[in-house]
From TrEMBL:
InterPro entries, alphabetized: Peptidase_M14
GO annotation terms (biological process): proteolysis
Domain of life: Bacteria
Peptidase M14 domain residues: 690-763
Protein's name in the database: Zinc carboxypeptidase
Pfam families found in the cross-reference section: Peptidase_M14
Keywords, comma-separated and alphabetical: Carboxypeptidase, Hydrolase, Protease
Organism from which the protein derives: Cytobacillus oceanisediminis
Listed GO MF terms: metallocarboxypeptidase activity; zinc ion binding
Length: 983
């Protein structure tokens, strides 16, 4: 240091410890005599903290590289001089010394352009030679952090807490000290407190001590018989205690860490909340059992009049082996029957085609160069089924025919018929391209109301159909075992539950559930078979699992619309457990657990008490009705993590910071990973770090049955190191590796019996809520708080949300044989190995966001080009066109980019106020979703999905790394031009 005017630069008292171009430390040893306590030193240290992104509170400790600051009494003048690389402060009085330090703290940074070895306190101003130095008093017009509870003092986002995130943060702090307790020891503690508070800010108001301007945060230090910190009104704190103890209390207070970082501060509130949770009591139970549909079919045959010479078709929801045994058994019992077919009542056409039509065609010896299948167009007026419903029920017939009969899938084609006598008519195409009739099929259906009370659904039904020799047809519909149970559930169980929760309180169904959970166990004889095609399978019970889950959610969503005009999106957990029990009668057992409702209480910490050594000992909370006193205890980071990949990564890594911002509804601590260039300091200001560097936030595991995103984000770090080298010099990365641990806990239970189902019951949180809807609200769902907390703490430029889609067919016969009606587009089959969704804002920044998104899409396309990902995307795009897009492009949309679908339309990614780019379009540059076909996959397929996510995210990282930023300084205020331009 050879110029005292450069005091607030890295040539002065500031340091860039890791050589990334950002100030991340200070280097000063303040040798304060015991008899001095100039309040202006608090301002001086506040400026030290304000100028850095990270800090260790060692101002009053010797350091090898620190600039020493000494104090000498002088009866001549008050000044600060640079002598032999030391700062010598001469003072005529403590009052003048205090004023000198206050003015130096408020020096205009532009003044450092000059050269001098002395700054003199002259006529109440600072002077270097004959030139007065400009100082700045902060404006204090911006919003400042709020402290409405003492737990907000050191919050996850720094000092104070705001509901809304912002890339700027004002510190408007005033510290006043009662003369009777003023000591050098107390002053040191308050200097640390002010420095740490200022570090979290991008703008600051000076002076910090002395005459108070209106607004802001006030800390009053007073003498009292016992040491405590009191919140006398919002933003007004009183640190009280005897003279010999209050300094130690200030020292400890300045160094306390928020509980999310492994400290104790604020954990009394979190811990108290966790302890209030109890096991939900049983509300009611219900049982169901019935005879098998096979028994019903047999009774119809037995009771039928003359079957002599009849052709009989029987449709049953039974496994293929059971159907074959029944056919043999019934032919023996009814020898007079001319022909007997026992067909599946689930995906009837697919089974008919591969079990009957193709084998018979092969036996005929006729040339087959292709198949054309005429399919009846669905046209029910109030039905939920799509017009292509009967094409959907064929999926994936063409690929199955290719695998099992050798006829290429592209030679199997469908025609949708507005009017047709039959549900299906199959023609073979010969070597000359001529068509020849092969067979036809009429599929029996049932009718039942959908849970919204407005629509109907028409699932395939079991039936006995008898054609006599005279041409007469008698058909008797039999409800499948699945339909009869589903009717019992929707007609008896759900209405009873509705009555039970009718006396709900305000907020239930939205910010807290109506009931805790429904557990459903179903035992049925149904087909469970994996196909030799992609990840496809035949599973009517998986379809029932999906119907029970989503249709229950829709039932209560409709109830909310009826009662309040808005959906109940948090009704309670729905946990369907399906059990295959071949050849036995169907039964089910249902348990419903109640939610013991306690309205959300605003517990406020009004007092913190210190022990005889000045350490935090107790916290006093009140909800306005009662008061509780709690011990101050540190949060203990969990020994293990529920996800094995996260657990392994946490146990192996030592390079990045792990924090726990909140607990899930079921009490799981949720970790986040912060990746930045370490400066070796004790405290960090992520908000200020994101001021000087671009920041990206990646969320994984939001829907826990989407299994590839969590391992992908953990592997991303090593891949980024290998590809970009010292990329953290340019970018900060925040990772939420498993956003929904409650969902993951459920999916681990569900896959024990059915490891390859999609298990959407684990899609949302523990109470069936898409919890992103309640972000930025006071809620019992801690998982909903993580995203807002990260935005408050980091103000990221880019947000990436890694998701997944089904890896195999998604059907719900009792919801229109499609993915749920709640989704505006269809997800009935995979559309890609991975595709992207870009969220766009409305308003003044839309054009910039569109340009940013195009830059991201272009780079992702470049990364994917020529890879196996592009090849798989092309394969799935062709499948998606064949079975959906060519018929209903609005329901099965495709927005192409080279090598990948990338959707920008609101139908695919609707905008709402709890999405970052919608809420903060003025500073978030881009928000992107990835969707890999990973529900639920393993081994090579899982690895391919992981790779797809990694490649997708690496491309976005590169776009952000190469983008330029512009940081401006206006006096003491820092700001960055946002949103950044990624193109």
């Amino acid at each position: 240091m050879d110029n005292i005017l450069a005091i607030w630069t890295k040539e002065g008292l500031l340091r860039d410890n890791n050589d990334d171009g950002v100030i991340d430390g200070t280097a000063v040893f303040i040798d304060l005599p015991d008899h001095l306590a100039p309040e202006g030193l608090i301002d001086f240290c506040a400026r030290l903290g304000y100028e850095t992104t990270s800090l260790s509170l060692r101002f009053f400790e010797h350091g090898n590289s620190a600039v020493k600051m000494s104090f000498i009494y002088s009866d001549v003048k008050t000044e600060i001089r640079l002598e032999n690389w030391e700062l010598i402060v001469r003072y005529k009085s403590e009052a003048e010394l205090s004023d000198l330090l206050k003015l130096i703290a408020a020096m205009d940074p532009e003044e450092s352009a000059g050269t001098s070895d002395t700054i003199e306190f002259k006529d109440g101003k600072l002077a270097a030679g004959q030139v007065f130095i400009k100082t700045i008093e902060g404006r204090g017009e911006e919003a400042h952090p709020e402290i409405n509870s003492l737990s907000d003092l050191w919050s996850f986002s720094g000092v104070g807490k705001n509901n809304e995130a912002s890339p700027s943060k004002l510190l408007h702090l005033n510290v006043s000290i009662e003369e009777t307790v003023k000591t050098a020891e107390l002053l040191k503690g308050l200097c640390d407190f002010a420095a740490r508070s200022a570090m979290y800010s991008t703008d600051i108001v000076f002076p910090v001590t002395g005459e108070r301007s209106s607004g802001g945060l006030r800390l009053e230090v007073l003498e009292d018989s016992s040491a405590s910190l009191e919140l006398t009104e919002p933003n007004v704190l009183q640190l009280k205690g005897p003279k010999e103890l209050v300094g130690s209390a200030a020292h400890h207070l300045a160094r306390e860490k928020h509980w999310s970082e492994g400290g104790a501060f604020g954990y009394w509130e979190q811990g108290y909340s966790l302890k209030q949770k109890t096991e939900a009591p049983l509300l009611f139970e219900a049982e169901w059992e019935d005879v098998q549909e096979t028994e019903m079919a047999y009774r119809i045959l037995k009771d039928s009049e003359d079957l002599s010479g009849a052709d009989i078709e029987i449709f049953l929801s039974e496994p293929g082996e059971v159907r074959r045994e029944l056919k043999k058994k019934w032919k023996d019992l009814f020898p007079e029957v001319k022909s007997l077919k026992v067909r599946s009542a689930f995906k009837t056409a697919l089974h008919w085609l591969v079990e009957e039509v193709l084998p018979e065609l092969g036996d005929s010896g006729e040339a087959v160069q292709g198949l054309e299948i005429k399919v009846k167009k669905e046209s029910s007026e109030n039905g939920l089924e799509l017009p292509i419903r009967w094409i959907q029920e064929m999926y994936p017939a063409d690929r199955l025919i290719e695998e099992e009969f050798g006829l290429k899938a592209e030679l199997v084609n469908y025609q949708l018929e507005d009017k047709s006598e039959h549900t299906y008519v199959v023609f073979r195409v010969d070597e000359r391209g001529m068509r020849h009739f092969v067979s036809s099929l009429d599929v029996p259906v049932s009718e039942l109301p959908y849970v919204d009370g407005k629509h109907y659904v028409y699932p395939v039904s079991s039936a006995v159909r008898v054609r006599t020799g005279e041409g007469a047809v008698r058909e008797q519909i039999i409800q499948t075992d699945r339909e009869r149970f589903y009717r019992f559930y929707t007609e008896e169980v759900l209405p009873r539950l509705r009555r039970e929760v009718a006396d709900y309180r305000e907020g239930q169904g939205h910010t807290r559930p109506l009931f805790d959970r429904i557990e459903i166990d179903v035992w049925m004889s149904e087909e469970e078979r994996k196909l030799p095609v992609d990840e496809e399978r035949i599973s009517s019970l998986e379809a029932l699992h999906e119907d029970l889950y989503f249709n229950t959610l829709d039932y209560f969503a409709h109830m909310g619309e009826e009662l309040e005009g808005k959906s109940f999106n948090a009704p309670g957990g729905v946990h369907p457990f399906m059990h295959v029990r071949e050849g036995e009668k169907p039964e089910a057992y249902i348990r419903v657990y109640s939610w013991v409702d306690k309205p959300l209480e605003d517990w406020v910490t009004t007092s913190i008490r210190f022990d005889e050594k000045g350490a935090l000992a107790e916290a006093v909370m009140t909800n306005g009705k009662e008061e509780v006193t709690l011990s101050v205890e540190a949060f203990e980071k969990p020994e293990g993590h529920i996800h094995p990949d996260v657990q392994h990564w946490l146990s192996e890594q030592d390079s990045y910071r792990i924090l726990y911002p909140d607990h899930s509804y079921r009490g799981h601590a949720i970790p986040i990973i912060e990746c930045f260039m370490d400066a070796g300091e004790e405290f960090y200001s992520p908000l200020k770090m994101s001021l000087f560097k671009k920041t990206i936030f990646i969320e994984a595991g939001h829907h826990s049955n989407e299994v590839s995103s969590t391992p992908a984000v953990l592997q991303l770090l090593e891949r980024a190191d290998n590809k970009f080298g010292d990329w953290l010099k340019d970018v900060n990365l925040v990772i939420l590796p498993l956003a929904n641990p409650d969902g993951y806990e459920l999916v681990t239970k569900l896959i024990e019996e059915h490891p390859e189902w999609k298990h959407h019951a684990a899609r949302y949180n523990a109470v069936g809520l898409e919890y992103s809807l309640v972000r930025f609200q006071k809620t019992v769902f801690g998982e909903a708080n993580i995203y807002p907390e990260i935005l408050r703490r980091w103000a990221p430029d880019v947000i990436v949300d890694d998701h997944g889609i089904p890896a195999h067919e998604w059907v719900q016969p009792f919801a229109g044989y499609n993915s749920p009606p709640r989704f505006p587009v269809s997800y009935f089959l995979p559309s890609a190995k991975i595709y992207g969704i870009g969220r766009l804002s409305s308003g003044n920044y839309r054009d910039l966001h569109v340009g940013n998104l195009e830059a991201v899409v272009e780079r992702i396309s470049q990364y994917i080009s020529g890879t196996g990902i592009e090849k798989e995307n092309k394969y799935w795009q062709e499948r998606f066109r064949k079975y959906g897009n060519q018929w209903l492009p609005a329901v099965f949309p495709i927005e192409e980019a080279p090598g990948i679908h990338f959707y920008r339309q609101a139908d695919v990614a609707p905008s709402y106020s709890t999405i970052g780019i919608s809420r903060y379009p003025d500073w978030i540059a881009a928000e992107v979703i990835s969707e890999a076909a990973d529900e639920v996959v393993y081994d090579e397929v899982l690895e391919s999905c992981i790779e797809a996510h990694i490649v997708f995210n690496l491309a976005i990282l590169e776009v952000l790394q190469k983008a330029g930023i512009e940081v401006k300084r206006n006096g003491l205020s820092y700001e960055r031009v946002r949103p950044i331009n990624l193109s």
